[in-house]
Amino acid sequence: MPKMKSNSAASKRVRVTGTGKLMHVGSAMRHNLEHKSSRKRRALSRDELLAPTQMKNIKAMLHK
To answer: 1 lies in a domain?
Structure first.
């Protein structure tokens, strides 16, 4: 039986930590960065922990 492909869109947005938690990068850091203040950019660049209810679905997409 062939192995299912992982969801590449999910792998671009979410990373798995060493302990198995899922971190995601928030929005608003893709473009128009020159218009945002450096304080705003620093705050937006932090990774956030994914909600526990979403972790189960995303882990299935990533095959982790």
So the answer is: no
Tell me: the pLDDT tens digits for 12-35? 899 999 999 999 988 888 899 999
C-alpha 14 chain-centroid distance: 3
Number of domains the chain contains = 1
- In a domain, residue 19? The reply is yes
Residue 1 pLDDT more than 70?
A: no
From the list 27, 61, 3, 44, the residue with the least C-alpha distance to 16 is 61
DSSP label at residue 64: -
Question: For 10-59, what is the HEC assignment?
Answer: HHHHEEECCCCCEEEECCCCCCCHHHCCHHHHHHHCCEEECCHHHHHHHH
